[in-house]
Amino acid sequence: MSEPRHPLIRLLSHLKRHRTTVILASLCSILNKIWDLAPPLLIGMAIDVVALKDQSYLATWYPDPKDQFLLLTAATAIIWILESIFQYLYDILWRNLAQTAQHDLRMDAYSHIQDLEMQWFSEQTTGGLMSVMNDDVNQLERFLDQGANDIFQVATTVIVVGGIMLFLAPEVAIWAIIPVPIIVYGSFIFQRKIGKHYSNVRKEVGDLNATLNNNLHGITTIKSFTAEEREIERVAKASASYRDANREAIRLSASFVPLIRMAILFAFTANMLVGGWMALEGELSIGAYSIIVFITQRLLWPLTRLGQTFDLYQRAMASTTRVLDLLDTEIGIVEGNYTLDSVSGEINFDNINFTYSEREQVLNNFNLSVPSGSTIGLVGATGSGKTTLIRLLLRFHDSKGGNISIDGHNVRDITLNSLRSSIGLVSQNTTLFPGSILDNVKYGNPNATKEEVLEAARIGEALSFIEELPNKWDTNIGEDGHKLSGGQRQRLAIARAVLKDAPILILDEATSNVDNETEAALQRSIEKISKNKTTLIIAHRLSTIRNADIIAVIENGKVSESGSHDYLLQNNGLYSRLWKVQTGELNSV
Fold first, then answer.
1. Which of 13, 15, 10 is nearest to 25 (CA)?
2. The sheet that has 504-508: what strands, in order across it?
3. For position 220, what pLDDT does the model report?
4. Contact between residue 469 and residue 492 where contact means Cβ atoms under 8 Å apart
């Protein structure tokens, strides 16, 4: 098994599309730091001009000290301008790169998630996924925004200052350089230790987000069971775990800078002492000694930022690992290459077997033929596999055995886009999106005309309540349509499916959240929209499917009986007993 790549290598590989920006930003950071280190040299030269006059370094070209000061003044202005220009450029480049990289990474993660099979989603938490796509991606943004520049500037400082000091006074330079390897080595040890803590921090924030997300979605249940105190304790426990994980990381992070300061104290005092002795003995000019004092500070003090920089770096690497691990998740549903063009809607389930992970078998050699243009009712106890059939048809999952075909083409061979575009789905758990009623109905067909939208709403029995709203079609329905009743949400979902006008229509308990009067109206609508379509209706209310061409009763993962409503009543099987219970002829099955 190959050794996993370092997260930084994985990140750079993922950012290769921004290679030019990375190179330019890095170059600007380096050039800015080079010009930033120039003023101490100018100060040393100015001191030598005052102290040595015509014996100074600049006197070789400009004997008059006044001319030397004019030169130094001009050089100072140029250096400050160049430093400012490159600071502006690196700031723009790094910050824009941070924004672009976090946007691309978030969109790559979201796009990849949409391609993953439903089985994978059942093993995740919404809060955990939100943590990856928001918190973890934002950690990378913070590092690129600040930490990457710091790394380049510290490296440039060590190289440039070390070179200058070795040129001016090798005996003094050695005292400034000795602590650098110790500081850098200590930083890498610190990085490895704190990296484990930040991995734990990322895990804990994911768990906390999952708890908060679940509670916010379940606030009605929490209130109905008066469980507010219990949930406060649950959130407090998750929050405390996140806090404690951060405390360990903070404790280690806070200890870094004080330790670095001790190494800096040694180098700075040694340079001051040794350099001062050499200047007193005449072995070093006053200007050169001034340069060494100033430039030592420029060398050593930025190293105290290594703790903060490595802190940002480790947070980013821990987060990057989580995001890139998500991107590396293999897609279980393999895309087909056949495109459905003209769909008549003939569906066949041949010897289908399916089992959810760590559960009993749901479908066992299941067989069902659905003629083109027919209406099929699916009946069975909860957990019998009715909805599973629909999920297999849409390829939210793949069967463990057998074949599902549409017009003779195996669904595994059909492109997912053309397969799902051919099917309109209205499920029991209606999902609506923030925005207006018009936006949600047109979700079924964004290019629909006003007349088509009105007709879809009329067929879905939604037009009457929409026209009664103060803002009518422009009414904002809130998150997941929480401003509407369950029946209104269901009618919008039906209108949305009608507008899609797919050749295959699936209604999975589509009338479960409406009253009897609306159900009767929707039943009439279903009869209209199912004409010339292949329609599969899952229903516990048998009145919804009594007019279906064929009713299939599912028991123990198979079709136990099938036929028309009248035939099944005469057959005296499970369907007949269910009908008698629902009509009051029997007390129970």
1. 15
2. 423-426, 504-508, 534-538, 375-380, 550-555, 558-563
3. 64
4. no
**In sequence order, what E strands does 298-343 have?**
none
pLDDT at 54: 67
Which regions of 329-435 does DSSP assign to beta strands (E)?
Answer: 347-355, 361-370, 375-380, 401-406, 409-410, 423-426
For residue 335, give Cα distances in angstroms to 292, 382, 395, 423.
Answer: 66, 31, 10, 17
| Pairing label, strands 347-355, 361-370 | antiparallel
Eight-state DSSP code of residue 436: B
CATH topology of domain 7-327: ABC transporter transmembrane region fold (1.20.1560)
Query: Domain ranges in the chain?
Result: 7-327, 336-422+533-589
Query: CA 428 to CA 123: how far, in whole Å?
Result: 22
Alpha-carbon 472 to chain mean position: 35
Given this chain, do its domains 7-327 and 336-422+533-589 carry the same CATH topology?
A: no
CB-based contact 366:360 (threshold 8 Å): no
Burial class for 111, CB neighbours closer than 10 Å (0-12, 13-18, 19+): exposed
Confidence category of residue 1, pLDDT binned at 50, 70, 90 = very low
SS3 504: strand
Amino acid at 417: N
Query: What is the pLDDT, as a whole number, of residue 514?
Result: 63
pLDDT digits 0-9 by tens, 253-267: 777 767 777 777 777
Read off the tokens for 116.
Answer: 């993953």
More confident residue, 381 or 535: 535
* Averaged confidence pLDDT in the chain: 79
Q: What is the pLDDT at residue 328?
A: 80
- Domain 336-422+533-589 = CATH 3.40.50.300: yes
- Write out pLDDT tens, residues 473-513: 888 877 766 777 777 788 888 888 888 888 888 888 776 66
Distance of alpha carbon 323 from alpha carbon 309, whole angstroms: 21
Tell me how far CA of residue 77 lies from CA of 56, 326, 331, in angstroms: 21, 51, 59
- Residue 143 DSSP class: I
The string of pLDDT tens digits covering residues 133-179 is 777 888 888 888 878 888 888 888 878 877 777 777 777 777 767 77
Residue 165's alpha-carbon distances to 41, 50, 484, 559, in angstroms, are: 11, 22, 74, 87
